[in-house]
Amino acid sequence: MVRRIAAALVGLVVGTVSATAVYLLVYPNLGVTVLLGAVYALAVWLLLRQWSVWTTSGSLWGDAMGGVPLAVSLFGVQFVHSLSDGARLAMSLLIIGTGFAMAGFGVELAIEAVSRERVESTSGSAEG
Question: pLDDT tens, 112-123?
Answer without folding.
Answer: 999 888 888 877
